[in-house]
Specification:
alpha+beta, eight-stranded mixed β-sheet, YbaK protein, elongated
C-alpha cells in the first residue's frame, strides 16, 4: 500500500492542508516532511494514524475543530489501483469512499501488515516520546517490539520468547504444589470418581434383594393405582348424583304443576314474538284508554255538534274532533276524524280507500263503533276499524273529542291520539 496524497481537511490546527506525494515513479519513493518547531509535523503524522486506525474517544487534536467535525482524507494506492478514503469520527461507518459509502475496516487493515496502532507507532513513527520509550523497551526487553529488538541485538532472535512459551505451557500442565494445573485438575476429578464409585458399590446379594424389593414395590404401586382410580370414579359418580338431586326435586315439582294442563297443546299456532308485540300493544292501549277515561268531562249541555262542543268547552271549532263513520257497498268501513269546520270530501276519500264510500246509517254506526251518532269516540270502538285522521288537527296542541255520549268530551294531544289509535294522517277534507 502506498500513500499518494494526504489531506488534513479538519484536524489539529489544519484546515484543508494537502500533502501530495505524486504517483509512484521509477526512482526512489521516499519523502521527507520537514519544518520548524510547532509547524505541524507531529500533527501530520497523527493525522495519518487517524486515517489508518480511526479517531480515539478522547481526542487531543480537537482544539480548533470539534471532534465531531474532524476529517482526514487520502488517496491510497492498493495493488496498483488508487482509492479515495475518508476517516470520520463515528462509532460505525467511520471509513467511507469518495461517494460517502461506508467501507469495512478490513479495506485498510488488510494492507497494514497486521500491525496494530501501538506497534505501528513503535516501529514506524519517530518522535521524542517514541524514541525514548523504544530505548527503554530494548534495554529491558519489555514489550513485543523491545523483546524482538533485544533478541536480535543478542543474536538469539526468538529464542527468549520460545523459551517463555515452553515454560508457560509446562507450568499449565504441572507445577509443584500448584492447585490450578491440568494435572491437579485431573487428580481431583479422579478422586471424585473414586469416591462416587465407593458410594454406589454394593454386594451381589444386596443387589438381588433390592431388585426383588423393586419388583414388589412396582406390583404394589400398580394395585394401589387401580384402587385409587376406582375410588375416584366412585367419588365422581356420587358428586354428580348429589348435584343432580336438587334438579330432580325441581323437575318433580314442575311436573306436578303441569299435571292440570296435561291435555293442553304443547305449542300454540302463532309467532311468539307476535304475541309479545300484541301484549305490549294491548298494554299501551289500556294505558291510553285509562288516561283518556280519567280526562273525560261531562258537559251540562249537548256536545252533539262541533259548534255545540266548542261552545261548551270554550275552544275554537277547529279543535273539535268529528268522528264520522263511512261505509262502502262491499261492507268495508272507515272512521274519519275531521276538524270541526271541515267537510269530508268523498272524492278525496275515494283516492285513499279505493272505492266510493258514504256516511254510514245510525244502526251501522252503533253496530261497528258501539256508540250512537253525536257521541262516537275515536277510542274504545266495539270493532277494529281503520282510522283516517284530518291533517288539520295536528296544527293544535290540544283537541277535543267525543267520549261516547252526546254530553261528554275529553282533551287530547292530536299526535298522541294518532299514535294511540294508529291513525293514518291524510288530506280528505275541505273547508266548509
Amino acid at each position: 500500500m502506498r500513500l499518494r496524497r494526504l489531506c488534513l481537511e479538519r484536524f489539529g490546527h489544519f484546515t484543508g492542508r494537502d500533502f501530495d506525494f505524486g504517483a509512484a515513479g521509477d526512482g526512489p519513493d521516499f519523502h521527507i516532511v520537514h519544518g520548524p518547531n510547532e509547524a505541524g509535523k507531529t500533527t501530520t503524522m497523527e493525522g495519518a494514524l487517524r486515517l489508518f486506525y480511526g479517531f480515539p474517544h478522547r481526542e487531543a487534536y480537537d482544539f480548533r475543530h470539534q471532534r465531531k467535525n474532524l476529517r482526514v482524507s487520502a488517496v491510497v494506492e492498493i495493488d496498483g489501483a488508487a482509492r479515495h478514503l475518508t476517516r470520520l469520527p463515528l462509532r460505525s461507518g467511520a471509513l467511507v469512499d469518495e461517494t460517502g459509502t461506508a467501507l469495512p475496516e478490513a479495506a485498510l487493515a488488510a494492507h497494514l501488515g497486521g500491525l496494530g496502532e501501538e506497534d505501528y507507532r513503535n516501529l514506524l513513527c519517530l518522535d521524542d516520546d517514541t524514541i525514548e520509550r523504544g530505548g527503554e523497551e530494548i534495554a529491558r526487553a519489555r514489550g513485543d517490539i523491545g523483546r524482538l529488538l533485544f533478541s536480535a541485538a543478542a543474536g538469539v532472535a526468538e529464542l527468549g520468547s520460545a523459551l517463555d512459551a515452553v515454560r508457560a505451557e509446562a507450568d499449565a500442565i504441572w507445577g509443584k504444589r500448584k492447585s490450578k494445573t491440568r494435572v491437579a485438575e485431573l487428580k481431583r476429578s479422579l478422586a471424585q470418581v473414586e469416591k462416587e464409585m465407593r458410594a454406589h458399590d454394593i454386594s451381589a446379594s444386596a443387589w438381588r434383594g433390592l431388585k426383588k424389593a423393586l419388583a414388589e414395590a412396582k406390583a404394589h404401586e400398580s394395585g394401589a393405582r387401580e384402587a385409587r382410580d376406582g375410588l375416584q370414579h366412585r367419588a365422581a359418580m356420587l358428586a354428580a348424583e348429589r348435584r343432580a338431586l336438587p334438579q330432580v326435586d325441581a323437575l318433580d315439582a314442575l311436573e306436578a304443576r303441569l299435571a292440570p294442563f296435561a291435555e293442553w297443546p304443547e305449542r300454540l299456532d302463532f309467532d311468539p314474538e307476535g304475541l309479545v308485540a300484541l301484549v305490549a300493544e294491548d298494554s299501551r292501549a289500556r294505558a291510553d284508554a285509562a288516561r283518556l277515561d280519567a280526562e273525560i268531562e261531562e258537559m251540562p249541555g249537548s256536545t252533539r255538534t262541533a259548534v255545540d262542543a266548542a261552545a261548551a268547552v270554550g275552544c275554537d271549532v277547529a279543535q273539535i274532533v268529528k268522528s264520522l263513520l263511512f261505509a262502502a257497498d262491499d261492507g268495508r268501513v272507515w272512521l274519519v276524524l275531521a276538524s270541526g269546520p271541515n267537510r269530508v270530501d268523498p272524492a278525496l276519500l275515494e283516492l285513499h280507500v279505493g272505492s266510493t264510500p258514504r256516511l254510514a246509517d245510525p244502526a251501522t254506526v252503533r253496530d261497528v263503533t258501539g256508540f250512537a251518532i253525536g257521541g262516537v269516540a275515536p277510542v274504545g270502538l266495539a270493532n277494529e276499524v281503520p282510522v283516517l285522521m284530518d291533517q288539520d288537527l295536528l296544527a293544535y296542541d290540544v283537541v277535543w273529542a267525543a267520549a261516547g255520549t252526546p254530553k261528554s268530551v275529553f282533551p287530547v294531544d292530536p299526535a298522541e291520539l294518532r299514535d294511540a289509535i294508529r291513525a293514518t294522517v291524510v288530506a280528505v277534507t275541505s273547508p266548509a
